[in-house]
Amino acid sequence: xxxxxxxxxxxxxxxxxxxxxxxxxxxxxxxxxxxxxxxxxxxxxxxxxxxxxxxxxxxxxxxxxxxxxxxxxxxxxxxxxxxxxxxxxxxxxxxxxxxxxxxxxxxxxxxxxxxxxxxxxxxxxxxxxxxxxxxxxxxxxxxxxxxxxxxxxxxxxxxxxxxxxxxxxxxxxxxxxxxxxxxxxxxxxxxxxxxxxxxxxxxxxxxxxxxxxxxxxxxxxxxxxxxxxxxxxxxxxxxxxxxxxxxxxxxxxxxxxxxxxxxxxxxxxxxxxxxxxxxxxxxxxxxxxxxxxxxxxxxxxxxxxxxxxxxxxxxxxxxxxxxxxxxxxxxxxxxxxxxxxxxxxxxxxxxxxxxxxxxxxxxxxxxxxxxxx
Amino acid sequence: xxxxxxxxxxxxxxxxxxxxxxxxxxxxxxxxxxxxxxxxxxxxxxxxxxxxxxxxxxxxxxxxxxxxxxxxxxxxxxxxxxxxxxxxxxxxxxxxxxxxxxxxxxxxxxxxxxxxxxxxxxxxxxxxxxxxxxxxxxxxxxxxxxxxxxxxxxxxxxxxxxxxxxxxxxxxxxxxxxxxxxxxxxxxxxxxxxxxxxxxxxxxxxxxxxxxxxxxxxxxxxxxxxxxxxxxxxxxxxxxxxxxxxxxxxxxxxxxxxxxxxxxxxxxxxxxxxxxxxxxxxxxxxxxxxxxxxxxxxxxxxxxxxxxxxxxxxxxxxxxxxxxxxxxxxxxxxxxxxxxxxxxxxxxxxxxxxxxxxxxxxxxxxxxxxxxxxxxxxxxxxxxxxxxxxxxxxxxxxxxxx
Lengths: 373, 402
Ligand SMILES: Cc1cc2nc3c(=O)[nH]c(=O)nc-3n(C[C@H](O)[C@H](O)[C@H](O)COP(=O)(O)OP(=O)(O)OC[C@H]3O[C@@H](n4cnc5c(N)ncnc54)[C@H](O)[C@@H]3O)c2cc1C
Description:
The complex is a heterodimer of chains A (about 375) and B (about 400). Chain A is of the alpha+beta class and about 375 residues long. In chain A, strands 1, 2, 3, 5, 6 and 9 form a six-stranded mixed sheet that branches. Chain A is built from twelve helices and eleven strands. Helix content of chain B is about 40%, strand content about 15%. In chain B, α4 packs antiparallel against α5 and α4 crosses α6. The complex binds flavin-adenine dinucleotide. The site of flavin-adenine dinucleotide has 22 residues of chain B, from β1, β3, α10 and α11. Flavin-adenine dinucleotide binds next to β1, β3, α10 and α11 of chain B.
């Protein structure tokens, strides 16, 4: 390996890790997660407000725009703990939208949106399309100039929390090149949203039909920076998904180990059988690998080149780790594992969602091959 | 201790780099062992013994060990730098692995003043080669059931029985020996005692065992009324299990305090990249095959993960959930990864993966094939991977005993 990879951990990361661990454990016990499965919104508005008050939405935004002035490295422990407790909601979408505005927005847009996003306004990302390609620059939705406004058309998919969001960050093709627009959700006509049925029931995902939507051209992010912004978004999203998956893997393994320590068959605790013990150890070892990669990616995130390598490694490893842990979690709970009541399904569904957003493990390895070989 | 300046460290690094550049002999004209378990010939043994001695005399081995026993008396940081420079220069391995990495730290940790004075220097200089007498023909993974007997007779102990898979047994002057001193103890562990036992005494015989590679490296050791002095006992009679467990912590890298250098060449997936350029698939370099690339990247990810564990292990908030986890899993992860790297390196050679050392057409002189066969030394020796999984399951995850 050309350079020796390393990890550093800031005082702020340590504090946020500690606070988020307690907060998420208190606010998102599994009964709460389950009660939200059938909730329209899918998250608790009061908890959202608390998170905003804690300043978590402002972590990675510079002070001049109303933020705290840290980086995504400090968001990682927070999202990891949310993942650990299967918490859902618009936190990641909002954090990422702020990143997009920071990297790709005009000065006016930064002034206009960032402080609000830090304070608790919610945003959703509308980047995916029916073709399902993970390449975010593959955009078929259109924006056409009409005087001082933009006419949008096409359909976006997997827009998380679109219903609850105040703002939508939408990728479109403008004059043949990818571009980003930020719009008020109020600009969408009635019937523009359709809730999607997705495998992870903690999430609220929507399709957004853009046909007939017309917005001021002031909604357009700096077109010269749109590729940069999309690339950045993709890596930011991958990093935070890795965090979510790492957290998920940790608690999925704990959940399974707990069962192996208590359930008895043939007069012995089933955890004494190596057919169960050894695979759960492998799952644990895989999780530990993923976590080292996660905090390496967090630490190196802003480094040109190294940040991308570390992030893709983290996403790849975390995806494999959570998938394996959750897959075995179902099997190791026996008949109970096949039930809706067993939490194993929550983790497995979560892992399938996360793997399929922003590239699965093999996709990131193929990107890494291009970078490393 | 006063702060060590960056400048001091970087000067030390330049000196070490220069020394290794000047003194590392790349091609002695015969194949050098990649691990301490592969020392099969006198030629290899003599070369590696001289090499270790030279490194020690230059101050780049045991720099972190106390001066009064023969070490350099410096901070650990200096030895780490020396070890890194040794690796950069692609230096041969340190020969006296069991002395350096298990017996030495153990004696510094639990030994008496007299034992430290007597043994440490010879370990560092490679004058005294050490071996380990734990496994027996009938008791391997179940180490606590060891049956080799040590019976007190006057001032001496008399040994009877047999140890097996004794790495470097035929070269060794001393053995760390686990033997049964009380067959009637209340449980099997309580009957064991630990010895720093001389090998060159009457009644100790070593018989080389041929490895799966066709080479030599370990022996079976027979004890027939072998008489060793009373002060060979380390610690108290009946507390051998405790000392043996501490030894295994050093052996498996769970505990630090080793004197540096390396006793196994780390396998780096980047080295396979060159091989993947040479080997062909469908008329093109194997490296252009997407399946090969995918596997290679996967191994690179894992190798880097392992390297990162070393860093994360020092960041308390990131290990506090399960503090013993990274240390207890490093042996399993490192050795299994190494085995898979070699295995993959063979499979990507196409038909030529079936060549072996000695065949002029073998890629890299058959190094990968031999490395693969030898890689099992580490997944079996020192406690098998299955035993490691039991340990992690029971001591990290808290699962019931198998
Ligand atoms: C190259 C090499 C060098 C060595 N050097 C030394 C040395 O210098 N000194 C020394 O004392 N020993 C040495 N050993 C011995 C080594 O420590 C033992 O081989 C090892 O502990 C396994 O013991 P065994 O060979 O008796 O296998 P066994 O214990 O008989 O194991 C056979 C198989 O059963 C599995 N198994 C056993 N028990 C369990 C269990 N409870 N749960 C699940 N699976 C289990 C093992 O994993 C293995 O796959 C060396 C071994 C090798 C290969």
